[in-house]
Amino acid sequence: MPGASSVSRAWNSDMAYSFRTSPVALASAAIALILIVAAVFAPLIAPHDPMDVASLSLMDSFKPPVGLPDADWSNLLGTDNQGRDVLSAIMYGMRISLLVGFLSTLFAIVVGVGVGLLAGYAGGLVGATLMRVADVQLTFPSILTALLVDGVITAALPGTMRQALQIYVIIFAIGISLWPNFARTVRGSTLVERNKDYVMAARVIGVPSWRIMLNHVLPNVIGPVMVIATLGLGQAIIAEATLSFLGVGLPSTQPSLGTLIRFGDDFLFSGQWWVTVFPGIALILMVLAINLLGDWLRDALNPRLR
Amino acid sequence: MVERPTLEAIAVSHFFDVSRPFLQRVFTGEPRRRLRAVDDVSFVIAPGTTFALVGESGCGKSTIARLAVGLYEPSNGDIVFENQALSSARAQPAMRRRMNMIFQDPYASLNPRWRVSDIVAEPIRAFRLATRPNEVQGRVGSLLASVGLTVRDGIKYPHEFSGGQRQRISIARALASEPDFLVCDEPTSALDVSVQAQILNLMRDLQQRLGLTYLFISHNLAVVRHMADRLGVMYLGRIVEQGPAEAIFRRPRHPYTRLLLDAIPDLEQVGRARTPVGGELPSPIAPPPGCPFHPRCPLANERCRMEKPAHVTADSVQVACHAVEEARDG
Amino acid sequence: MPLLEVRDLTVEFPTRHGVLRALDRISFSIDAGEILGVVGESGAGKSLTGAAIVGLLERPGHIAGGEIRLDGQRIDNLAAEPLRRIRGRRIGMIFQDPLTTLNPLYTIGRQLTETMQTHMRLSDTEARRKAVGWLDRVGIPAAAQRIDAYPHEFSGGQRQRVVIALALCAEPALIVADEPTTALDVSIQAQIITLLKDLTRDHGTAVMLITHDMGVIAETADRVAVMYAGRIAEIGPVAAVIRHPAHPYSDGLMASIPSLEHRVNRLRQIDGAMPRLDAIPSGCRFHPRCPHVFGRCREQQPELLDAGSTRAACWLHADG
Description:
- The structure holds 3 protein chains of 3 kinds.
- By secondary structure, chain B is α/β, with parallel strands linked by helices.
- Chain B has helices at residues 22-28, 61-68, 86-91, 93-96, 116-126, 133-146, 163-175, 193-210, 221-227, 245-250, 255-263, 302-306, 322-325, and strands at 7-17, 34-45, 50-54, 76-81, 84-85, 99-102, 181-185, 213-218, 230-235, 238-244, 311-314, 317-320.
- Chain B is built from 13 helices and 12 strands.
- In chain B, the strands form 2 sheets. In chain B, strands 6-7-8-3-9-10-12-11 form an 8-stranded mixed beta sheet, with helices on both faces.
- The B-C interface holds B 56-57, 162-165, 192-198, 200-201, 204, 219, 221-223, 225-226, 245-246, 249, 259-272, 274, 276-278, 280-281 and C 41-42, 139, 155, 157-158, 185-191, 193-194, 212-216, 218-219, 238-239, 242-243, 252-254, 256-261, 263-264, 266-271, 273.
């Protein structure tokens, strides 16, 4: 459509159309958006501040969620053993979970795409070696890799710095566990693009290899990366929750959803199920929404299905 | 003898390593395998003319195209650009600018994520022929116009154009560096006949206007007839017949040239019954001994099976054939 | 009665931008034992015509009108199972790429015998004997040994020969061949064209030969239909269409092909390009590019009219 503005072109594109007409995509995007907004603006919109020790009172402990007897509307989802509001704790916890998830996925993308591009474009011994490293790492479950990296670095750090750097260590560990997926896909796509004539046209006029990789090849291989990134984000969030649940993740001063689940686990069978179940539901909803969006994206980007 | 040929190939040979992966060879004890894509090829291209290389798949013409523009260095022999070794010429941007290439596949030769104006501008920017944005855009506009497109086509993406239009964009890009020498690798093979006519006419117009020299690669002898001043017929990496196009078409001498000309379905001979020469194109990895064409040649004798023919000259045409040398070709 | 009769065949593709009409009321017929060439450039609809006839239109394309009759019996409105039986038994198919036509996991002997036994009553030994016979007839050397080989063990030209054997072995009355030689080298092309011509003449099989290569048509076909933007522009005996084309498009097409015999200064070119399916011009589809256009061309779409030895959809021949 010549002359149409960029916005209307985007709105009418096949991908936007596919999004608008898919109930699953719309619902997942809505849920994800609500959760992300709640997390980002938690300090502004959370009913209580669960970290403010001064505002806590043991009198408020173990209040059940609304709908059960003895409930209180100011604590919609109840409180935990120290009187912390579960809903607020979830919002703050989601914040941490999402932050760690996004940053570690970003780290994995940068490393993975970089290695994949290099391996695909250079080929030969360099490419083969890089891919073997990726393959070896992929034989281990990613959570194991994250655990290992986390453990090694934490042990190597002097005790005084551990708590402050813990969040960075977690991000690094999870990122390292996820890079091979990106590298393999990007390398495969790079191998295909490298032999195309437009790359040769650039080589004929003497464009240096690094520039060809970044300006020519990268834009053409980034498509599948978006799909893997979406699914990888879900993986990263679950990985962080697992590490925190196991007690080797973030310190309890910055509880993520996984940490909350772990706290509440002690009370699950003594009747105060809401302390662990609601954070669990929040985690499931978030990751499910992300995964469904990733599925939609993969189908939308697949030219054969159009 | 051409005074200052644009391009000269001197006894060029090129091998590709097609061995099995290293570990596999360790276990099976296989030796390295080499594919001889180009075997002792020599030719000269005079400025302002079109030299065509014709042949079927596996004959080595595409490899020569890439060697001629410097994408690879030949395993043996030399390629000389205006009396300077090609590799050293390409090291200097001022010389590198003067050669460029047009590709066969209009769909793979333009980056699908770049706008047309950026695609055409890339050589301009790479060689700093213009630096200010409106200068660059001005050049892009006139380049697009010279290939029959409009300035407004610059903001579009390649997928919005047909095959013929994309090939025009490719030509505009190739001309952006103000070259003297263009290697054209099957530029119209992927196009419909009526579009091909447009592109071939365009290429000849540009050659006349800008004094371009073309190395034109094709498998289509009729197209070559229309474009070439001189041509070389290739088979399994060797040039078997080379000379002025008119002379070769009027009187083809090498049995393979005759086979090719005869095999082309001809519009003007409706319903012709013919006896096609049998045999398959042999694999370039294990070429037959002696003359590579002998398994399919109606004139092959013992010598052909054992000895590779050297080039003989007959009426300004060079032919590599024992039968021609021995005057058995009738 | 003609073997294949196509009348007013229309094929449409619903898209979210509207319905695209890829074939607009195509009519032609093929007699038993005749070779009809269907020629046209990319987007003209020739492959779609072949696909519609054998019932292999890709969704969401569908036949929106007209009828296709084989030996008088309608085949366009059949259900999947009866259509499948007709396909292979009475209509054989040859596609462009032999690599995807042949199943790489089965020997060619198995593919041949399986095809024959699906459509004819034959014992295993009989089927195998016939298969060897076919391989021999299409020129595969040492057929009795090669019959147990896999497709990847053959060269491109040999694979296409096997595909021809596969198409003919059930002794169909009609073969639809879509660009059977385009992927092959010139010298091999010549062999395959001759083979196809000889075999179909020997067996009295009719052929619908779809290609963009006029040279192949010139050598092989009896009649030719020239397609443009989903319509037939001209149809008639091959020599007549090539030497005295009555439609300006056929004329332009023939003239734009470079000749082997002599070199011209400038090839005759048809300016512009074939219209896209969502931008079909009013009246005659060729009028924006036609050197002889006049008033009526822009308003009314011509049907095939008598033009001497051929029929052409062009108002220049309106008064006979």
